Amino acid sequence: MRIETRERRLGAALVAPALIWTVAFFVLPFAAMVWMSLAHLDGRMVVPGPDAGNYLRIFTEPSLRRGIWVSLQITAIVTVISVLLAWPLAWIIAMRVPPQWRRLALLLAVLPFWTSYVVRSYSWALVLGERGVVMNALTGIGLLSEPVQIMATRSATVIGFVHFFVMLLTLTIYANLVQLSPNYARAAEDLGASRFQVIRLVILPLTLPGVVTGAFLTFVLCIGDYITPQILGGNNELTVPQLIMLQLGRRGDYPMASALAVVLMAIVTLAYAACARWLRMDRL
Amino acid sequence: MTLKHTCAVAALCLGFAGAADAQELNALIWCDHADPALLEPFETAHGVRVNTKEYEGTAAGLTILEQSRPGDWDVMVIDAVDVGRAVERDLLAPLPVDQLPVADYFPQVVLDENNTVDGVTYAVTEKFGYNTIAYNKAKVDPEDMKSLASLWSGKYAGRIAVYDYYLPVEGLVGLSQGIATADLDAAALDKIREPLFALKAASKQVSDVVASQTALATGEVDILVGGGEWLTAVLHEENADLDWTIPEEGGLVWAQSLAVLKDSTRPDLALEFVKYITSPEGQARLATSSCYWGMPANRKAEAHLDDAQKAILRWDEQADYLARAQLYPVPDAATDAAMQDLWTDMLQH
Fold first, then answer.
1. The domain B129-253+326-348: what is its CATH number?
2. A155 near A127, Cβ under 8 Å?
3. Which of A5, A123, A169, B136 has the most C-beta neighbours closer than 10 Å?
4. What are the boundaries of the signal sequence (chain B) (predicted)?
């Protein structure tokens, strides 16, 4: 009995720091944010709630509702393209690159992480501009007679995101791939599977946890990102983080900003619930 | 070390800390005030160091103040139209206007209606300029820029950027529809909705200062709606074709003010800073700050500017410009919210 009590105390003591940390830096701030989201702005003063008016506005005002839709669209496009590009890249690094070169290949893959996120976005602005490298090359070789607008469009935002998230996904999928025993593929080949069938029916399903984990991280980071759409999107459509910044920087409307942030968290929670079955953070 | 020694060292450290504290002035500023060439004469004259923190947007500035301890900040640069908001929150200290050179100001930018509340002056104008049309005269016919109607003509579709600030741009669109900035109320906003959306449709981007400057400088766009000397002057050496004008319908005067914070622990030094910035020398340095240029509010700054600087600032044309330009709209809270809603709708359109 005494040993049990001691073990319980030890367990509680070991859990306590993490618990205190979570309560102090997640639960309490989140509760404060929810409470703020239930207040409203009267003139320029914040009036305490509870009042669900901000949530009602988010789902009834076209510009706010469209912000959620734009965010979801961009995030879905970015996640799909990033997975489609990252999986073959990770597979090549894990399966085709000789072991002595893998470290270098991985280093090259994560090279973009070495640059500041803001600097990288501004660099894309210069690359994608009408007088940037891409348009100069395309018009120079005669593929285009006139430069087309990529900068300040959704395409620019997606390109900026994909550049970043392909690297992230490559790492998560690579981590998954290198943990796979080569015996799976050998067994499948012994049983008559073609190389394509081995990839499609054996390796691909086994890497699903890595793909889903990377895709989930991509989803979370992409839908909450302010910098890339702000710099590359040209303010031609607003995502939820941009709407939040408008409430904070321009209007001082903390209740609406909080409500939008809560909606953003709800979306992320739903995304987590949707892919929880496959999420394997321990594979990273 | 004995207790006496420890106490002596501690006292010495506290003394130094106090002395160091007394040698600093904390300023919440816009980027033009971060120029060492502006701050250096004041720092040398008073033997102090000016610590600056840049902010953009009044709401962001007010947030910084609310999240700081009382006394953390001594002076603040603020949009002239927002002085009332800061006074409403009891953040600013009255200024002894009789000790400041406002008599030497361009009369149109004294802006008592903005800087004075209930007969008490809380801020003083320090710099002004115009939100109007900036353009590349090598790519755009300057004759077209004499009328705001050119923006909607289709001739420049896709070559326009809109400065991402609702007050001046909605004011300009109002002027294009014959609505004075002082008359921008809820009913007037309905009238500018479609023209504003049409302007967005003809534009390539709606961008902040840096992105607008980059787009104009790199040739991504040829016209910036809401631009002016504050945007083109710093690019003059790189591209002398970047120009600005006030069209026949008019333009808007922007103005920034300087205020002493109520909880400043160094109110005398803060006032000295205001005196320096509004002095002819301080005004000339502020006008030609490395971040962006603008007209000094104090006319006597002329003596400290060379001919080339005055030409870029269009010193000799100020009388005409000030006569043709209108002040920013000063909306009440409800109209301000409606203007921002309209701006958000435009961005999402």
1. 3.40.190.10
2. no
3. A169
4. 1-22
Which residue carries 């008073």 as its tokens?
B46
User: Residue A232: which of A159, A148, A164, A156 has the closest Cα?
Assistant: A156
Does the fold of domain B129-253+326-348 match that of domain B3-128+255-316?
Answer: yes
Task: Please check whether the domain covering A70-283 is classified as CATH 1.10.3720.10.
Answer: yes
According to the model, what pLDDT value does residue A276 have?
Answer: 81
Residues of chain B in contact with residue A63, where contact means CB-CB under 8 angstroms, are 341, 344-345, 347-348
Would you say residue B238 has pLDDT above 90? no
Spell out which residues of chain B touch residue A248, defining contact as CB-CB under 8 Å: 59-60, 63
Q: Is A149 helix (H, G, I), strand (E, B) or coil?
A: coil
Task: Find where tokens 């900026």 sit.
Answer: A160
Name the interface residues of B facing A (CB cutoff 8 Å): 56-57, 59-60, 62-63, 85, 88, 158, 164, 166, 204-207, 211, 214, 218-220, 333-334, 337, 340-341, 344-345, 347-348
Q: Are A151 and B220 in contact (CB under 8 A)?
A: yes
Tell me the pLDDT tens digit for each residue of B5-46. 554 555 444 444 444 445 899 999 999 999 999 999 999 999
Asked whether B26 and B72 are in contact (CB, 8 A), the reply is yes
Which residues on chain B are in Cβ contact (under 8 Å) with A67?
348
Assessment of whether the complete model's pTM goes beyond 0.90:
no
Spans of all domains in chain B:
3-128+255-316, 129-253+326-348
- B28: tokens are 């919440």
Residue identified by tokens 């000397």 is B229
CB contact under 8 A, B341 and A246: no
How far out from the chain centre does Cα A56 lie?
27
The segments of chain A whose pLDDT lies below 70 read 1-3, 279-284
Question: A201 CB contacts (<8 Å, ≥6 apart)?
Answer: A188, A193
Which DSSP helix (H) or strand (E) runs through B254?
strand B252-260
pLDDT for residue B63 = 86
Looking at residue B1, what is its pLDDT? 45
Among B348, B347, B342, which Cα is nearest to B193's? B342
Q: Which fold has domain B3-128+255-316?
A: D-Maltodextrin-Binding Protein; domain 2 (3.40.190)
How many other C-beta atoms lie within 10 A of the C-beta of residue B289?
19
**In chain B, % of residues over pLDDT 70:** 94
The candidate with the shortest Cα–Cα distance to B294, out of B272, B319, B312, B320, is B312
Cis previous bond, A50, omega within 30: yes
- What b/e readout covers B87-117, taking b as 16+ CB neighbours within 10 angstroms? bbeebbbbbebeebbbebbbebbbbeebbbb
- Give the pLDDT score at A281: 57
pLDDT of residue B19: 42
**Tokens 């050998």 -> residue:** A186
Q: Which of B166, B204, B333 sits opposite A44 (nearest CB)?
A: B333
pLDDT in tens, B143-174: 999 999 999 999 999 999 999 999 999 999 99
pLDDT at residue B2 greater than cutoff 60: no
